[in-house]
Amino acid sequence: MSDVLEQAGGTRHDQPTARTIAVSAIIPTWNRPDRLLATIDRIKACVPAPDEIIVHIDAGDHVSGPALAKAHPETRILRSDQRMGPGGGRNRLVAAARNDIIASFDDDSFPVDADYFAAVVQLFRTHPEAHVVVASIFHDGESIVARSDHTIIVADFIGCGCAYRRQAFCATGGYVPLAVAYGMEEADLTLQIHDGGGVVLHSHDLRIRHATMLTHHAKPEVTAASISNLALLAYARYPWSHFGIGLLQVASRITWLIRNHRRQGVIRGILAIPAQLWRHRAIRRPVKPATLQIVRALRRGERASSHGAGP
After folding, report:
1. Helix, strand, or coil here: 274?
2. Distance between CA atoms of 297 and 290, rounded to whole angstroms?
3. How confident is the model at residue 17, as a pLDDT?
């Protein structure tokens, strides 16, 4: 992790004289206190730092709170009595934030550059149409590329390295709280944002290190959730006339999983679809057909540029 927080020579923005900037940094966590504390250390080392850091501790985690209170007593802590998952945690964190610009992290993701928060603020000023700005994310084992001023409207992003306009986020339904949310969280929020007239903007000026090798993506429970969640996404947001597209997407996901030797969890995911849709039947608010077409076109472009990465 020695490649994080580039200081003098690694910044591109004029540094404000204030030690903090009007940004809220939010982090959902669950039973990883060591990683959480290391992440907060790196966030606080930015210049300027966010003027508040809020952490949501999900149900069943009895170790992160005491560790956090001891190491970073100024950090605001939210807790849940029921498991909410990272998306549900982010909903609560955004609602509790006191600033309109909210930088979102996981408990193992953090800025590469010391001026990260200044860059986020500048991007929102320059791009008033952006409801979410997204960083380039580099996982363990991946080389960090140089910064640039290039920006592009996208359909896909990850909550561990982005920032929201609070007002725009609160105008949506937020994230659907799922304990394992792969295939639903950001894809759903993207549809809601574009349907409301905003955009998701990827900036190559923002860089995040995500301290993981992503090996957990091969777990059976993740495989199962990626199938049932994709069906839920189609049910919740697709117009009835586009349900056939949703069925094809679920079939495509299953095919990709099998071809990539992730068979464990496939049957479980298929069988979980009826209960998943029934459990969340009240959230159905379909987007406009034109919105779905725009987002699908953006996603096709992203996949083409990633040289055939899996769905």
Report:
1. helix
2. 11
3. 56
Cα(218)–Cα(126) distance, integer angstroms: 39
Tokens of 95: 């609602």
Q: At what angle do helices 243-259 and 266-279 cross, to 10 degrees?
A: 150
288 CA to centre of own chain: 23
CA gap 148, 96 in Å, rounded: 33
Tell me, yes or no, if the pTM score tops 0.85: yes
220 phi/psi in degrees, rounded to 5: -55, -35
**Cα→Cα distances 47→3, 5, 38, Å:** 17, 10, 17
Q: What is the pLDDT of residues 235-275, one digit of tens each?
A: 999 999 999 999 999 999 999 999 999 999 999 999 999 99
120: exposed, middle or buried (Cβ count in 10 Å: 0-12, 13-18, 19+) = buried
Hey, what's the torsion of the CAs at 300, 191, 183, 258, to 10 degrees?
-30
Domains and CATH numbers, the chain: 20-213 (3.90.550.10), 217-305 (no CATH)
Q: Where are the beta strands (DSSP E) in the chain?
A: 20-29, 49-57, 76-79, 101-105, 109-111, 130-139, 151-154, 161-165, 199-210
Q: Which two tokens stand for residue 157?
A: 């992003």
